[in-house]
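User: Can you model how adenosine monophosphate sits in this protein?
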Amino acid sequence: MQTPQATGAHYAEFYRRSIEDRDAFWREQAQLIDWHTPFTTVCEYGKPPFANWFVGGTTNLCHNAVDRHLATRAGQNALVFVSTETDEERVYSFRELHAEVQRMAAALKTLGVKKGDRVLVYMPMIPEAAFAMLACARIGALHSVVFGGFASVSLASRIDDADPVVIVSADAGSRGGKVVPYKPLLDEAIRLSSHKPAKVLMVDRGLVAFERVAGRDEDWASLRQRHLDEPVPCEWVEATHPSYTLYTSGTTGRPKGVQRDTGGYAVALAASMKHIFCGRAGETYFSTSDIGWVVGHSYIVYGPLIAGMATIMYEGLPIRPDAAIWWSLVEKYKVTVMFSAPTAVRVLKKHDPAALTRHDLSSLRTLFLAGEPLDEPTARWIADALKKPIIDNYWQTETGWPILTLCNGIEPQRAKFGSPGRAVFGYDVKLIDEATGQELTGANQKGVLAIEGPLPPGCMQTVWRDDARFVETYWKTIPGRMVYSTFDWGIRDEEGYYFILGRTDDVINVAGHRLGTREIEESIASHPNVAEVAVVGVADTLKGQVAMAFAVLKDGAKAATPELALKHEGEIMKLVDEQLGAVARPARVRFVTVLPKTRSGKLLRRAIQAVCEQRDPGDLTTIEDPSALQQIVKLVSPAA
Ligand code: AMP
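Assistant: Here's the modeled complex, given as structure tokens:
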């Protein structure tokens, strides 16, 4: 039999229904998960931009990820933990995962956590982190996972905003064979924050000794022992009940708590596992991200488990002990779907491609990449090395699942280098002229990538405890119309494929990690000798972008010689490391006597960025002091 030629028409019809016959479409998708009480309304959108999905229904994320699989696959792998840092490998079946999650849920309840309370998770990539997330979902508490690479000041601001009853943490993580203690950073963060959690639940991996605060710090191993066989039933929550908050950076220095619901999220993930990732129950999914990021939430923990797949949690580097490590896991656990980031591929690219195929990769169907632009050389290199289809997907912490990609589960579609693909079902994607607010309907026109409300299921409900900020930040940036702005520029070709052209705001993307330049600036400005600073993202062949800082010292003479400048650069980097974490550390700090600003005092970040990337800085008619940019030109010129 001949395979029909994929024209895209079948997907186009699927997509059209998701927008034009929205409720019927999502009612069908909702059958992919278990409901305790059926919903009565698919989408309530009476108060735009606030969308309520599956109103009247009750369900539970943990039930859908774990319990519902017990009847058919209790003995199958659910969670595979591999650490090349501590040489551990632990495999949990669905039955075992169910038991561990109940123990964690019982422990959290004993520590006073109730439905609606927040639990902050500050953990390395160990199974207990997933247990904690699932346990929260089980009892209707909200988790707020903070990436383990963030340091005390970043953590403190998140503690204050999330207001957690309990913090779950561990003695240490490990990176490249080096132990990274967590507890001192956590203690310092709690000291800095005005909100003090009642309890800290510590997972002691035995990596490093740590101090315990009497009356506050509890030990996971002993609590686990006390609750070994305690059943903790799933709390049936409203579909609209928030499941978690996850902080992300924007234009201002204060991170936003992205709040997600329960029912819509479960349905969206189940639909994405089927139609985008094409993962099947009983198979293994391997996402190389970290639980501290949205990919870790959606596609290490919830998505694969909801689909009845085993999920791999990997602690370690992609090239240690060698560049074959990930691929040896593909062979060993018969991974069918893999998800990583272009940065990781660029790291692998420095190694012999033969390392990737030393192992049997026959189980692997597709490698998905996301989180940052996928450049053509990187895409070609990995496609050639693996001889497998590579699929780019574009989305954000805010959306929780892909906005643009190829939904090959509906119909195999041709990939185009440089494009993540077409609009995903449910997303009414538009390109908008920033100045006029008009929709750009023609091909190859550049505009702001926006989404017409309601956002589909699974996307953010609001900014945690700040509805006004949700509306102001995302829905009011384009003149004359209320659409959700992604803050990315894009174009669409005549076949409906989108190309992402970079952020419209001051967010930068370092190795797939989203950082606000203002956050870094605020940290640097807290240095006693820094009068003013500008941070910009500069193109980098390995990390996509790196942060570069230009600082004005209070006493310019302090950076008068190269030695003094180096000393100050070192101090500033250390300060950022201590406050925000090494992820936010600028790659370079350079000193100037004045920063380029407009006459009204606005920093000309785009001009600085252009100069750093050896591009034309554009229109400079509003610049107050042209010599300011000249200083930067001199500092970054290849001869400097
Ligand atoms: P995050 O919220 O950390 O996932 O970051 C989201 C941002 O990362 C987006 O707004 C884009 O700027 C960028 N991004 C994510 N995925 C892609 C992709 N596939 N191609 C280009 N940019 C991407």
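A couple of observations from the model: The mean pLDDT is 95. The pocket of adenosine monophosphate is lined by residues 248, 294, 370-374, 392-394, 396-397, 420, 486, 488, 500, 503, 509, 514 (CB under 6 Å).
User: Helpful, thanks.
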